[in-house]
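quick one, 184 residues, struct below
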Amino acid sequence: MKSNSVSQAVVAPYADALISLAQEQNSLDAIARDVRLIGDTLSDSVELSQLFASPLIGENVKKGVIESVFGSQVSALTKSFLLLLVDRKRIAFLSEIVKQFQSLLRVIDGVALAEVTSAFQLSRAQEDSLRDRVKKLTGAKAVELSITVNSDLIGGVIIKVGSQVVDASIRGQLRRIKSSLAAA
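---
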């Protein structure tokens, strides 16, 4: 298992380099689409992530997989970047590099990421309402929601933006009532 500090020391320079190169070549939007596609593909395919992480699988096989999976779907710059990761034996960090790139992109675009845990699936109107509230809270130009459903909350939502957490769940309310009763 990779430690977080070692992982971050490897991940950050590659994400920074890709975003800088994309900005220099005025192709940030295209590269961002490519990175989103790569992230979605990795999260949809555990096997692909395992293949990239395996030290037993050779570089040529990994490069072949990159060519067949992403070859015609991503820009030449993105494909070159992926092949460089294989050459430098950093392809195992691809998922983390994608997350770091997306985090940097959100900063550039003024977008806040709100991690929402809900007791039930939210409607489009509820998502829009949450976006508006988080915009007001953070002053961000836009808000990206990452929604997880957890029925243990009983009802309500927990919203995390950066280090701020708003617990508006029934479970959280019950926990606060229990604490206040125990303190009294």
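The mean pLDDT is 90.
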